[in-house]
Design a protein that fits this description.
590 residues; alpha/beta; Rossmann fold; GMP Synthetase, Chain A, domain 3; 5-stranded mixed β-sheet; 39% helix
Length: 590
């Protein structure tokens, strides 16, 4: 079946008549959901929505962690031609209220008692008329989804099918609110055709679905990358195992043993940090360093998809590399990264342990994939070649411009901002990049993130930050210095490693505040930065280091829900410390 709308995916899955298309973790283990059960569940929820007067174009919000009911609610809304509005489960009542009001959502599906209580505190200030709840919560204020699902049809429903198949590619499918790294979230309008065209092309070169494959759905479905990936994998016959809590990911990976691993850079960074922690101390550290040197010598073979055959590689694989893969389930054959820049050095580290990560690139506004590395077309340090149905060109100032069927319809109720997002029919991505002679796209940085010192020099912070984050002592690094005399860096340590270092070096501390204030700790991080400075241009060199005692998070506004740094949030939170640091430098003539 050709893919014209997202509804076609549901009928493709149903048509396969498989015993399991999804897996849900319950007390007694993993419970499969069949093609027939998925169809029944979706149609049952759609019938209820229709009975409430939900019609084409009405907005339906979903506030939930990843679980089968998320996708069922999504498909039910799409089947009616309604518009799905995802909300991150970690967002506050105030943030949730903003999205519900801005989108005009009439129905919201929530996962748990806690999410239900959050919505009930704000419901009277929103347009929400009905609430669906996924868990078996005792309440008179919501309708249980499971009852609706079980009352769905056990045979094909011609009326439901006809309504679903009447939805056109140009019909609005979803409004996704951007994570807001630079300001108030905007609703990105994506049509069925936008997302379906991207699903059809983005994973065509991977060959998924040729065997009984499993992937763990753990990246928030409220984010366009995760939702796109799940649509694409379902369309190709890959079984989805849902992980509602990323804290459970290690255990879920061991239990499910997925064949496909799809993550964001932060997840890959955390795995690398754990490897370094577990290989600390003699003789493990010596074996680890030797294995990495062997892997580095065979990097080219790994990147072509071939497993090296040398005896040294086999030994390194048995002693180190296989154990890393075991921590990721042990059976994954394809690894994909998206949602943020992976960083060349991190990609090289994985290639050196025998794991080629296929990095992709895109934005919410592009449905999302613009370019991706594939098993047959891969170049380290790039985000791959643009999809066949997406055109890319580089503007005179280096900004990446794109056009194609996956480019969004516009921002919800923001015609002026929609117009400003385009130039001569090309969408302005806001990213700086270039295309090489082989057609591979590389991204340097966000245009808005470029730092311009008071001396007029432009600095791209992301490559510097990605290099620093490779050090196991660093959790997050943020380069600062816009309109300042020189660049500096604000560092949130990776505290498990820092605290181990402190104990090993007799540095006493009663709290993280005391730890980061210690002169030896300050000197430790200054040394790390100084080592990096040797590889930077003179105007890029980081002249001051500010170590903070907190880990950045979405809760305090310093990161997005997909683990990207919110520079404005960080600069606001640490404004006093940053101003004091630069004032001291000025006083010292620095």
């Amino acid at each position: 079946m050709s893919l014209g709308t997202l509804n076609d995916i549901l009928f493709t899955v149903y048509g396969r008549r498989r015993d399991r298309v999804m897996l849900q973790r319950q007390a007694l283990g993993w419970v499969p959901i069949s093609s027939a059960e998925l169809y029944r569940n979706v149609a049952g929820v759609a019938r209820a929505l229709e009975s409430w007067g939900i019609r084409q174009g009405d907005r339906i919000a979903i506030l939930s962690e990843n679980r089968p009911e998320w996708t069922i609610a999504d498909f039910a809304a799409l089947a009616l031609g309604a518009v799905t509005v995802p909300i991150y489960s970690t967002q506050t009542a105030q943030q949730t209220s903003y999205i519900l009001n801005d989108s005009g959502a009439r129905v919201i599906a929530v996962s748990t008692k806690g999410q239900l209580e959050k919505v009930l505190t704000i419901q009277r200030h929103t347009p929400v008329e009905h609430i669906l709840v996924m868990d078996a919560v005792e309440t008179a204020h919501a309708v249980h989804m499971h009852g609706l699902m079980l009352h769905g049809p056990n045979e094909p429903d011609p009326e439901f099918d006809a309504r679903s198949q009447s939805i056109a590619p140009n019909d609005l499918a979803t409004i996704i609110y951007t994570s807001g790294t630079t300001g108030t979230p905007k609703g990105v309008m994506l049509t069925h055709g936008n997302m379906a065209s991207n699903v059809a092309e983005s994973m065509a070169a991977f060959g998924f679905g040729s065997k009984d494959e499993i992937s763990v759905s753990f990246l928030p479905l409220s984010h366009v990358t995760a939702r796109h990936v799940d649509f694409a994998l379902l369309d190709r016959g890959v079984v989805l195992a849902y992980c509602p809590d990323i804290a459970q990911l290690s255990q879920v990976l061991r239990e499910v043993q997925p064949n496909i691993f799809i993550g964001v850079p932060r997840v890959y960074e955390k795995i690398r940090q754990q490897v370094i922690l577990k290989t600390a101390g003699f003789p493990k550290s010596a074996i680890y360093r030797w294995a990495l040197s062997v892997g580095r010598a065979h990097r080219a073979e790994t990147l072509t998809g071939a497993e090296p055959t040398s005896l040294s590689w086999k030994i390194a694989n048995k002693l180190v590399f296989s154990k890393v893969r075991a921590g990721m389930g042990g059976k994954a054959e394809e690894f994909i990264s998206g949602g943020a820049p992976l960083g060349r050095e991190l990609a090289e580290w994985y290639a050196d342990i025998g794991i080629p990560i296929h990095e992709g690139y895109g934005l919410t506004e592009t449905s999302p994939v613009i370019a991706v590395n594939t098993p047959t077309t891969h170049k380290l340090g790039t985000v791959g070649k643009p999809l066949p149905n997406v055109e890319v060109r580089i503007a005179d100032d280096g900004e990446v411009l794109v056009r194609g069927p996956s480019i969004f319809k516009g921002y919800w109720n923001r015609p002026e901002e929609t117009a400003a997002a385009f130039v001569d029919g090309w969408f302005k991505t806001g990213d700086i990049g270039h295309l090489d002679s082989d057609g591979f796209l590389s991204i340097t940085d966000r245009k808005k993130d470029l730092i311009k010192t008071s001396g007029g020099k432009f600095i791209a912070p992301q490559p510097i930050e990605n290099s620093l984050k490779l050090n196991p002592l660093i959790g997050t690094a943020v380069v600062i210095g816009d309109r300042r005399k020189f660049p500096a860096v604000l560092i949130s340590p990776y505290f498990p490693v820092l605290e181990d270092w402190a104990r090993a070096n007799q540095v006493n501390f009663g709290s993280r505040e005391i730890l980061v204030a210690n002169t030896r700790v300050q000197a430790l991080y200054e040394g790390i930065v100084e080592e990096l400075n040797q590889n930077l241009a003179r105007f890029e060199k980081l002249k001051r280091v500010l170590v903070v005692s907190e880990e950045f998070s979405a809760a305090d506004g310093t990161m997005t829900h997909t683990f990207k740094v919110r520079r404005r949030g960080i600069e606001e939170r640490y404004r006093a410390l940053i101003d004091e640091m630069y004032a001291k430098a000025d006083a010292a003539g620095g």
